[in-house]
Amino acid sequence: MCSSDLVLTELWLQHADKVHWQTGPRYVPSGVDQVVANLGASVHETYDICGYPLDRPLPAGSRTRGATAYPVRSRDDVAQYERTSALAWGYPPPSEDDIDTTYAGLAEGYFIGCWGNKPAGAGGYGLVNDVARFWGTAVVPEFRGRGVYRALVHARMAEARTRGARLVLVKARESASSPILQRLGFTVYGQQKVWSIRRPDPT
């Protein structure tokens, strides 16, 4: 029995109903996608690894009239960020304790996106050496398609560059944010796949 079979057997014994397995460019050995497929997995989601060198001008299309973004600094900003992010992702609203916890650990890189005066999206990034890695970007459903996502991209790129970043990397859904990023000039360098394996029916 191979190691993947052993892992799945143990998970089924722990009463898991479904397992997600991630593969991508840095996963070894080669051919692991086929191994997972042979176990009965199907692709649950595909992400493009998109990059943009910051020695180039920022994309002109990343700025849209009416859409803006600004960094999170105060506790009030954190509260707005947490509530907006929850709305965008469809999560339950944060408690005051949740907000306090985020504020206590606040670091540079959190941003709120707005449509007019209304909070409409949220996203962040972390700086690893000279690479800005974007994460957690989402827009509240009623404000999608108005440039809020692009405003969040622009604001983070601009700040990251002032902090010494030379490259932006984003793991973007192939069917959602990746096409937007590619229109802004991002290049797809590779893909990650999330496979889904359901617990076999007992027979």
Structure description:
It is built from 6 helices and 8 strands. The chain is α+β, with helices and mostly antiparallel strands and 203 residues long. It has an 8-stranded mixed β-sheet, with helices on both faces. Helix 3 crosses helix 4. The two termini are 20 Å apart. The mean pLDDT is 85.
Task: Provide keyphrases for this structure.
8-stranded mixed β-sheet, alpha+beta, 6 helices, globular
TL;DR?
This protein is of the alpha+beta class. It has 6 helices and 8 strands, in the order αβαββααβββαβαβ.
How can the largest sheet be summarized? 8 strands, mixed
Number of helices in the DSSP assignment: 6
- How do the SSEs run, as a string of H and E? HEHEEHHEEEHEHE
Beta-strand residue fraction: 25-35%
Topology of this structure?
Layout: H1 3-13, E1 18-23, H2 32-38, E2 42-53, E3 67-71, H3 75-89, H4 96-104, E4 110-115, E5 118-128, E6 131-139, H5 148-162, E7 167-173, H6 177-183, E8 187-198
